[in-house]
Amino acid sequence: MQPDQNACVQLLKQRFGDRCQTSQAIRTQHANTTTWIRPQLPDCVIFVETTDDICDVLRICKDHRTPVIAFGAGTSLEGHVNAPQGGVCLDMTNMAAILEVIPEDLIAVVQPGVTRERLNEELRATGLHFPIDPGADASLGGMVSTRASGTEAVRFGTMADNVLALRVVTAGGQVISTGTRAKKSAAGYDLTHLFIGSEGTLGVISEITLRLRGIPDYTVAGTATFPTIRAACDAVISAIQFGLNVGRLELLDTQQIAACNLYSGLSLAEYPTLFFEFSGMADAVDAEFEVFRGLLEDAGSFAVQSSSDGDERRNLWRARHDAYWAALAAAPGKTGLVTDACVPISKLADCITGAQGDLADLGLQGTILGHVGDGNFHVILTVDAEDAGEQARVEQFLELVSDRAMQMGGTCTGEHGVGQGKRTALARQSGDALDAMRAIKRALDPHGILNPGKIFPETEEIAT
Amino acid sequence: MQPDQNACVQLLKQRFGDRCQTSQAIRTQHANTTTWIRPQLPDCVIFVETTDDICDVLRICKDHRTPVIAFGAGTSLEGHVNAPQGGVCLDMTNMAAILEVIPEDLIAVVQPGVTRERLNEELRATGLHFPIDPGADASLGGMVSTRASGTEAVRFGTMADNVLALRVVTAGGQVISTGTRAKKSAAGYDLTHLFIGSEGTLGVISEITLRLRGIPDYTVAGTATFPTIRAACDAVISAIQFGLNVGRLELLDTQQIAACNLYSGLSLAEYPTLFFEFSGMADAVDAEFEVFRGLLEDAGSFAVQSSSDGDERRNLWRARHDAYWAALAAAPGKTGLVTDACVPISKLADCITGAQGDLADLGLQGTILGHVGDGNFHVILTVDAEDAGEQARVEQFLELVSDRAMQMGGTCTGEHGVGQGKRTALARQSGDALDAMRAIKRALDPHGILNPGKIFPETEEIAT
C-alpha cells in the first residue's frame, strides 16, 4: 500500500466504521478468483448503502489517488474485480433495493446490487420479467458494467439493448443521470451506452433503469441433434436469415453433451446439438416452430425433440446453465477456465472447428458451447492448475481463439468483457480506436483511480 | 471569415480544385433551411470522394482552427448543418457506394452518402432490407449522426440498434474502426454508440456497417379510429404490454386526419386514428393481429380497417409519410415547423393533450402525429413566417413541449436530435451529465472544430 493509500483507508474507516473492512478473509473474498489470473487484494472493502456513500468514497479516494473497484456478485470471468494496485473495493451487496416497477411502461429502477434472479422473483406477480440471463446469478450492476448477455440475447439483445438510463457517480464524486425513461432519445451523447461495458473504469453505477418484457404465455423448447458442428451452424444461419422469432438458440458440442448427460441426467445422443426455445402466443409460436423444424431437417438434423411442458423445459435449461459444472465434473481434479469469442454467424462453424483443432494440437481438454444465434461461443477448458507447461499452452490457446475471431471480422469477447484477461487482445482488435478510448478515460477519470489495470494493456500508474 | 479560415479555404482549393466550391448558390444550398433557424452559410463546400479526402480536410482544418460540418442529404430539422462560425461543409453525395452486402450475416457496409431508399432498392434482389425509416430519404450518415428512427422503430429499434460498426475520421485526421461484424461485443468502450447521435461533433463518419432484416412474406396494415387521443393511447399501451410483435404503430390526431384526407385522398373518419402494421409469417401475423383487434376494440375503437393488399398498404404509408405536406397544404401561405418529444407510453396521452392545450392557449395551428409505440410524437406547426409575435409564441410552445416531456420522465427529442434548436432544452434535461458530454467533446475534439455551435448551449469559440 502506498503511504497515501494508507491514509485514505484510515479516513474511510473513520467515515464508515464497521462498514469498512480490512480483514484478510474479506479482502480475499473480494479479489478475483478465476483460475489463471492470480487474485490481487484490495486494501479495504466498504459496504456502501447509498449513492452518497459512493460519492464520499470517490471524493476521499480522488484526494488520495487511491483506486476504487466496484464489486457486485463476483461472477466475472476476466479479473474485473482484481485490485492490482490495491485500493478500495466498493461492495454493492447492501445497495440491492428494487426502487420502482412501472408495469405500464415495462420499466424497473433498481440499485446495482440487485441480482437478476432476485429481480425476476420480485417481478413474478406483475407478469413481467427481465430477460437477460448470463447463467450466473450476477448483480445487475455487474451485468451493466460488462455488457453481459446470455441465452436470450438472440431475441432481446444484450444489456446494451435493455438499459434505458443509469445514475452514475463520476470519478470526481458528481452524480449524473445518463438517460430518461423514454424508450428512445436523440438528446446528446449516448452516455448510457458509454458506461455500459466500461467495467467500472469511467464511473460507479448507483442506479439502473431497465426495460422489462412480458412473461410469455406459451413456450416450446427442445433439442436437435446434428452430424457435425457445421450442419448445426447451417440450421442457425437459416433460422436467423429467415427472421424467425427464436427465443434461445444454443449449441453444445459432442464433448459437452456427453458431460451434460452424465451431470444432469440427460439422455441425448452424443453429437453436436442445438438447444432452442420459442415463446409468445401459442398460435404464432407453433407456426414459427413448424418452419424451424423444417429448417433443422433441411440442415441435416436426425433427431428433433420438443416440448411445451414447463418442467421438461426447465430441466433442459438447467442442464444448459450447469454446463460449466458438467464439464468440470467430467475432468476430476482439474480447474475450469472459460473463454468467449463472437463472430458473424457465417464464420461460426469455421471458428468453432478451428478452436477444436487448436485444442487437439495443444493437447488441451475443452468443451465448446454457445449462444450461436448471436455467433457467440465459449470454450470451457479443464486445466491442471499445477502444470506450468499446460498453463502456457492455455494462454496460447486463448490468444489463438481471440485472433481467429478477429480475423473473421468478430470480437475477442462477445459478453465476458476485457478485464485483465483480454487487454492485449483488445489492443490488437481496436488499433487506433484504443487512443479514442484512452482519451475518454482520461477525460472522465483524470487521475486514473477507477478500476485501474483493466481494459487498457499498459500498466496504469495512478496519475499524481 | 477569420483570416486563418480564409487561408484554410485557399489551401483546400489547391488540394481539391473544382471539388471545393465557394459560390453563394452552393453555400446557401448547404446551409440549414428549417424555418425558424436562420441559414448560416459555410465558407466553402468540398465534395469529398474518399476517406483520405476527409482526412486531408480535417488535418488542414485542424491546423487552421476552421470548422468542419458534414452534410448528407440536408433533411435535418434542428439546424444540424448550419455553419454559425463559417468553415468547411463536407458534402458526402459522392461517397455513396454500397461497399459490401453479406446476406448470410444480414450485414451491409455502406458509405455515408448512401440514402436509405437507394440502399433498399439495391437490396431488393437479396430479399433483405434496412428497416429504419425516418420518412425523408435521408443519408445513412445523417441518420447515424442524429440517431434517427421512424415508423419501424417500435419493432426494430433506432439507428442505435441497427449499426454494428463505424469507420470514423477523428478531429486529428486519424481513421478508427469502432466495432466489428459480430452481432454483439463486450470489448472495450462502446465507441459505436458514442458516435451515433453525436451530430458530427466528435468525428466524421466515413463508413457504416448496418444490420439488415429479411423482407417479410406477409403484411397486414390498417387503421383504427378512436373517440379520443387517450383511448388510442390506451390501445397502444395494451399492445406494447402484451408484447405483440407490432411492426408499425402510428397515431394521427383529428386535424392531421382531416389534412391527410384532403391531401392523400383518404376517406377516414375525422377522429384520432392509429395506423398499424404487422408483418412476418402469415399464420403468426394473423394470430397476433386478431389479438390486436381485440385490444383495439377493448380500448374503444369504433372502426378497424385492415388489409394485406400491397397497394392499399403502400397508399396508407405514403399518406402517413406525406403528413407534413398534408398539414402544410391545409394551411396555405404558412410555413411548416416540426418538433419532436418522447415520453414513457403511460404518459403519452397526457403529453399530447397537454400540447393540444398549449396550441389552443397560444393561438397556434398544429397537427399532432407520432410513433406512439415508442412514446414519440411530433407537432407539425404551420406558422406565418412574417409574424414576429407568432414566432415568439412558437418558441414558447417548443419550450413547453420539451419541458412537459422532461417532467414526465421523457426526452426533449426522440429522434430529430439537438442541433441548434434543442440546445437549451438538452441543458435543462441533462443537468450535470452535460459536463461529462463536454469532457468527451474536449477529449476527442480539443480545438472544437467539429460542427461547432451544436448540442452544447454555450456559444462555442474555436479554441486556439
How would the blueprint of this fold be written?
2 copies of one chain form a homodimer.
Chain A: H1 3-16, E1 20-21, H2 24-29, E2 44-47, H3 51-63, E3 68-71, E4 88-91, E5 98-102, E6 107-110, H4 116-123, E7 128-129, H5 140-146, H6 153-156, E8 163-169, E9 175-177, H7 191-195, E10 204-211, E11 213-214, E12 218-225, H8 229-241, E13 248-252, H9 254-264, E14 273-280, H10 282-298, E15 303-307, H11 310-321, H12 323-329, E16 335-342, H13 348-362, E17 365-371, E18 376-383, H14 388-407, H15 423-430, H16 433-444
Parallel strand pairs in A: 2-4, 3-4
Antiparallel strand pairs in A: 1-2, 5-6, 6-10, 7-11, 8-9, 8-10, 12-14, 12-15, 13-14, 13-17, 16-18, 17-18
Characterise the protein shown here.
The structure is a homodimer of 464-residue chains. Chain A contains 16 helices and 18 strands. The first copy, chain A, has helices spanning 3-16, 24-29, 51-63, 116-123, 140-146, 153-156, 191-195, 229-241, 254-264, 282-298, 310-321, 323-329, 348-362, 388-407, 423-430, 433-444; strands spanning 20-21, 44-47, 68-71, 88-91, 98-102, 107-110, 128-129, 163-169, 175-177, 204-211, 213-214, 218-225, 248-252, 273-280, 303-307, 335-342, 365-371, 376-383. In chain A, strands 15-12-14-13-17-18-16 form a 7-stranded antiparallel β-sheet, with helices on both faces. A 5-stranded antiparallel β-sheet of chain A has the order 5-6-10-8-9. In chain A, a hairpin with a 4-residue loop joins strand 5 and strand 6. In chain A, helix 8 crosses helix 10. The two termini of chain A are 15 Å apart. Chains A and B meet through strand 9, helix 7, strand 11, helix 8 and helix 10 of A and strand 9, helix 8, strand 11, helix 9 and helix 11 of B.
